[in-house]
Design brief:
mainly alpha; HD_domain; 9 helices; HDIG domain-containing protein; HDIG_dom; 0% strand; Hypothetical protein af1432
Length: 189
């Protein structure tokens, strides 16, 4: 099965009831769709992968990216989607390497969306709509800020993609702007 957007969202919600995890899934979906458009790829597929990427995290945090395979196979999801979802944990919680450009983008932007989210909520506007690259880069350099964000993964991902880190950050911000209201980052502008 190649899940539709609604099917992917239903699967995410079946295994996650945490508003934070669902919002994160929506943020990653938005950024994946944005990059798919930039790269001339399948926006629906990329969006579904983004939505479902943390499907196992709430229930099985110690087996993250491992249990995802079982859950998604049981739901009849195509192998291409499963491999992509598992690969975002490469070197962290599994050994499935990102190979396709979709997988490399997911690997790179998963952590980055967390940093951008944290940067946006610290702004007076509480919005991603007026967040700029320079503000994110300043926060990026401060290892105490959003300390749980693995900056090495972001850098490794950008290198895998042969993309400049500033470009990846800028386009991730743009993708999050597209879904600002859905992810609670429209703010008080």
């Amino acid at each position: 099965m190649k899940p539709t957007r609604d099917e992917a969202y239903q699967l995410l919600c079946k295994y996650n009831d945490s508003p934070a995890l669902i919002t994160h899934g929506l943020a990653v979906e938005g950024v994946m769709r944005h990059f798919a458009r930039l790269l001339g790829e399948d926006e629906e597929k990329w969006g579904a992968v983004g939505l479902m990427h943390d499907i196992d995290y709430q229930r099985f945090p110690d087996q993250h990216c491992i249990k995802a395979r079982e859950i998604l196979q049981e739901a009849g999801v195509d192998e291409e989607y499963i491999h992509a979802i598992q690969s975002h944990g490469y070197g962290l919680c599994c050994d499935v390497k990102p190979e396709h450009v979709m997988e490399k983008v997911l690997y790179t932007i998963d952590e980055l969306t967390g940093l951008i989210n944290a940067s946006a909520i610290m702004r007076p506007s509480k919005s991603v709509l007026d967040l700029e690259l320079k503000s994110v880069k300043k926060k990026y350099k401060d290892r105490k800020f959003a300390a749980g964000v693995n900056r090495e993964v972001i850098e490794q991902g950008a290198a895998m993609l042969n993309m400049d880190l500033d470009y990846v950050i800028t386009e991730t911000i743009m993708g999050m702007r597209e879904v600002a209201e859905a992810i609670g980052l429209k703010g008080e502008l």
